[in-house]
Amino acid sequence: MSRPASSLRAASLILQRDLTLAFRRPGEWLQPVAFFLIVTMLFPLALDPELSRLRALAPGALWVAALLSSVLALEFLFREDGRDGTLEQFALSGQSFAWLLLAKTASHWLLTGLPLAIAAPLAAVGLGAPASAIPGILVALLLGSVSLSLLGAIGAGLTLGIRRGGALLSLLVLPLAIPTLVFGARATAMAIQGEPAAAPLYLLAALTVFGITLAPLAAAAAVRISLE
Amino acid sequence: MSEFFAMSGYALYVWSSYAIGIGALLLNIYWARASLRQAEAQARRRLASGDAA
Amino acid sequence: MGLHLWRGERHVLNGLSLRLGAGEALQLLWPNGAGKTSLLRGVAGLLPIESGTVRWKGADTSTDYAAYCSDLAYLGHDLALKGDLTAAENLRYSVGLRRQIDAAAISGALQAVGLTAPHDELVRRLSAGQQRRVALARLALWDAQLWLLDEPAANLDAAGQAQVAEAIAAHLSRGGSALISTHQGLPLPAAFNRLSHSPQEFA
Amino acid sequence: MSWAWFHRFGSPPYFYRLATRWVPWLSWPAGVLIVGGLFGGLVIAPADYQQSDAYRILYVHAPTAWLSQMAYTLMAVAAAVGLVWRMKVASAVAAAAAPIGASFTAVSLVTGMLWGQPMWGTYWAWDPRLVFQLVLFFFFLGFIGLRSAIDDVSRADRAGAVLAIVGIVNVPIVHYSVTWWNSLHQAPSVLRAQGPSMPASMLVPLLMSFLGITLYFYAVLFYRTRAEILRRDRGAAWVRELLTGKGKTA
Q1: Domain extent for B30
Q2: What ipTM goes with this model?
């Protein structure tokens, strides 16, 4: 009676739905970014406010804060859809489950990863980074936050049905995020020192592309198992 | 014989490493036995509590 | 279909074989915990089946699961409706995943289940009965051949239950089939209706 | 090459009886080799010209480090086989291998630190090998943690398998990033086993303890797998007759 929906259309519907849902409840989505800014603000207070010395720590502080807030943000990814049966309908929609979850992760990234990457240069300046480093930092964190969301999707899928899965989620995701942390922090450090950060950025980009292709398959398997 | 145990000054590190190594070996043996005993007990309990199969 | 299904520890379905023809409804009036939901989820493919097969139109569902899904409509305990969206938006996003639909079809379906326009009320503010009607409207819009309904008439008043029964009857008359788990039987036209009171009947 | 042997291994009773038969055959040679290796390492092998007796820790550290990586790979492969072909025995092997692997990763970490003290003067230097062992330890904890958080055994197996597969895919990437990161900050450190250039008297005990610990690993693995198989096949008839049979004689 009617043509089945194309997968592209299905993905765009998921994005629209998540964005409308987010705009209806704006407070929720800003929490990870707020957490990120607070954590980066702690470093000068805990260590020492002298900008020149802070600059050496800026990359590490930024990326550790980014890692932690992206794990925190995973709460919003599947938990609600899992509980109210939406994920079940995704699994039964006839569309490729991995593709729908990729769309879901993309909308999650738009709402948590992107703001994180935009807030990072501000935090970096706060930690003594020169204005010239901002583009480098932005690119590094854009790439990094994508792979963090993708890895997070696998962890969130695995711990979907588990009560108090938060601690376990970070135990599963953080070890997997080590390469992203290493390359990202290196790229940011080089950006701050003004050196061309091409090498680590390419590695970071490779990680992200690797994540985009494989992570949704693992996340789909993980969610399907959690839905049993 | 005593200088053998001294391990030219590194006695603490060498002997503790060996102790940890052998300790882990024994621990795993005990652990494996305990898990088999427990699994058998669970299986028997399920068996005793009526034929659930 | 010789279904064996384990639910955690319990051997829930022990060699159950079940056949459902076109235009036929089977209501499972099994006692609680006898595996109604597990059977439905197993047939839908949400729950892995230890042994035995689920066949749809002669073919094993696992060979072409996507095609099977497009013929399938599953309604579980939780209605997969988003509280912060209106009824129309909910339908647009959930049915849109499967087929092209337009606003007119959506409002038509909502009216058919007795939800008066305008449909701009957030689902959160609708009553349980109204929410279930939205789910029924979605079921109609999917126009799948096989309906798997898990207590479709739960917490509905008499009028609501009649409406559910009417929707199912219409579906059956169009040649669709339905597997329904329910506590109290739904009044369905006798011609299509089979009742089962315990899993042993299919062992 | 018919797949019959593959499926025969898959049937729980067959593997259970096989494991029962193999355990003694594995554990005695393992015991002899380990004792021989450690004894050789302590007594026979001459003191190293550089590190004198401190290097004897190698006889515990190297085999356990190697074993932990082998255990993780075996665990991931077994879990993947269990997931793809739905073989309970494979999932049982994976569930059995995890705690053994985790405990040996911990041992290799601690002995690595104990070796670090006489060598670098500090217990923990961010040497890529030690860091990689630490990350491997977290992968193990993740697997064990995830499995224990899920009550239903077969679901826990499958979820664990997905994690193990993601893990095994990421292990080389993590390994690369840790060594890449290390090369940025300092020249690769000195913690390097002497390798084949070692005189025979040093090398033989090392090989003996390597072989010994591998046999030991399989012995304990088969023993634990029997327990895991029982947990997964509790309802099966062969379990009942096995237990009632054993019940009378034990």
Answers
A1: 19-53
A2: 0.87
